[in-house]
């Protein structure tokens, strides 16, 4: 930023009294300005998430994303007062009932609420000239195996590949857990993709063409019980022999959180890979549990499921044997939580493990079966 003509002096700098757009610290300064102001009217930052504020009555929640502010609570005097308080201090556009949020369409029905990104998918398809492509039933083939490329196979248009993956990452974050493994896997090759990787990325676009109307469904009066599933694939990154961890959390029958991540250490057995995935799920469960306790003031019952009896055995029996003596101490936090009774871990068959979709390519039947449970139906 340059000073205007006539105000520049050699060896002198200007002091900025108010933060403006374009500076690195602007979002931070805006956040603290907003939080400090709302604190005068009974709102406090939650320990669970600093971008979520709760009113002292517990009847109104406020979520902040940069300069987008969303109110959650029963329509009434408190909600109207809060809107008027914001309008009195800031230039605010009241958009009314929440129907769109960060590219996610929110629809209210007699049965519940749906979250969809069909419009965003159409924009992606148009951007990459795939709006008339032929749909496929699977985002990635169950036998797909990718590794770092040879020089002669390098993609000539790496930028296009990176743009596709970047667009799809936001889709996964918003409403599409069925793509978590596919995009996590393909994103590993962003720096130097091959023509095969670009073909695989375009296949995902063809998959979206046929599933653009898929949405997350949250029924009214859903029973407040939490269910979590975890899974791991063993050594399916061929050139590095890394495994993938994944989990899916549901509140009642509604999917609320998911993740796929490549494991950093090399697992030397399927038991070790599954145990590391179990540890990742445990940490996220404790975070979600703290959130529900802070926001809802109640302890929601939870059941955690894993399809590896070996990993469950290690979690419940902290004994040394050939299977467990080499496990990193960082992953034994699961044992501690199990002993305290905070994490009940149970077995689930692989074909019913929802997290399976976050760790590997599926067959058509298994993918359809798991998606029907993940997304729900109206």
If you had to describe this structure to a student in words, what would you say it looks like?
The protein has 378 residues and is α+β, with helices and mostly antiparallel strands. It folds into three domains: 73 residues, no CATH class; 96 residues, no CATH class; 154 residues, Nucleotidyltransferase, domain 5 (2-Layer Sandwich). It has ten helices and 13 strands. It has a five-stranded mixed β-sheet with strand order 11-10-9-12-13, sandwiched between helices. It has a four-stranded antiparallel β-sheet with strand order 1-2-3-4, covered by helices on one side. Helix 4 packs antiparallel against helix 5. The N and C termini lie far apart (53 Å).
In short:
Helices cover 35% and strands 20% of the residues. With 378 residues, the protein is α+β, with helices and mostly antiparallel strands.
The topology string of helices and strands comes to HEEEEHEEEHHHHEEEEHEHHEH
Radius of gyration: 24 Å
CATH topology of the largest domain: Nucleotidyltransferase, domain 5
Low-confidence runs (pLDDT<50, min 5 residues)?
none
Average pLDDT reading:
85
Quote the distance from N terminus to C terminus.
53 Å
Topology:
Layout: H1 26-39, E1 43-45, E2 52-55, E3 60-65, E4 68-73, H2 77-89, E5 100-101, E6 104-108, E7 112-116, H3 118-127, H4 158-174, H5 180-186, H6 195-211, E8 216-219, E9 226-237, E10 242-251, E11 254-262, H7 270-296, E12 302-306, H8 309-316, H9 333-340, E13 345-347, H10 364-375
Parallel strand pairs: 9-12, 12-13
Antiparallel strand pairs: 1-2, 2-3, 3-4, 5-6, 6-7, 7-8, 9-10, 10-11
Helix pairs in contact: 4-5, 4-6, 7-8
